[in-house]
Amino acid sequence: MAKTELSKAEWLSKAEAYCARAEHCAADVRRKLFEWGAPAETEEGLNLFDFIEQKLYENDFLNDARFCHAYVHDKVEYQSWGRLKIQAGLQVLQLPSSDIYEALKSIDEIAYFRNLRKLIASRRTDPEEKLLRFLLQRGFTYEEIKNCK
By CB count within 10 A, which of 36, 60, 117, 138 is most buried? Predict the structure, then answer.
């Protein structure tokens, strides 16, 4: 059976399984459906992507606030990103500003500044301008960097 011959229910089931494995946002699901070759419309003329997105929200497979919190946690914990880069990443995904703001407020300040200090220590041999440029690109503000040195 070709992928484009799957029914709405089968596409929905596939999207639910994708969302059950990890936290995703609507943009991730739409991109994945496109990669899988899902048709834009169903036989009934419905937009399949909109239908699946709506059902995923209704069944709590998608939750913007939950995704924002997971994204913020992972970027701070595993990639040592600063607030500005995290915020930009979430805005690109077109998530609600209120959810982004709440997730950014939940950042563990101790872990955040510990990461910043580790980044500074790892680049101690760099000239000051190069270190500053590196940290700004990671999304830290000038004030945060100045206060952490």
Answer: 138
**Domain membership flag for residue 2:** no
- Give the tokens for residue 128: 């000051």
27-63 pLDDT per residue, tens: 999 999 999 999 987 777 779 999 999 999 999 999 9
The mean of the pLDDT values for the chain is 93
In terms of C-beta density within 10 A (0-12 exposed, 13-18 middle, 19 or more buried), how is residue 37 classed? Answer: exposed
Q: H or E segment at 56?
A: helix 48-58
- Report the predicted TM-score, pTM, of the whole model to 2 decimal places: 0.89
CA distance 83 to 147: 15
13 with 79, same domain: the answer is: no
Domain count, the chain: 2
Query: What is the DSSP secondary-structure string of 108-129?
Result: -HHHHHHHHHHHHHHTTTS-HH
Containing structural domain, residue 73: 64-148
Q: Does a structural domain hold residue 1?
A: no
Residues 43 and 87 in one domain: no
Q: Same domain for 69 and 122?
A: yes
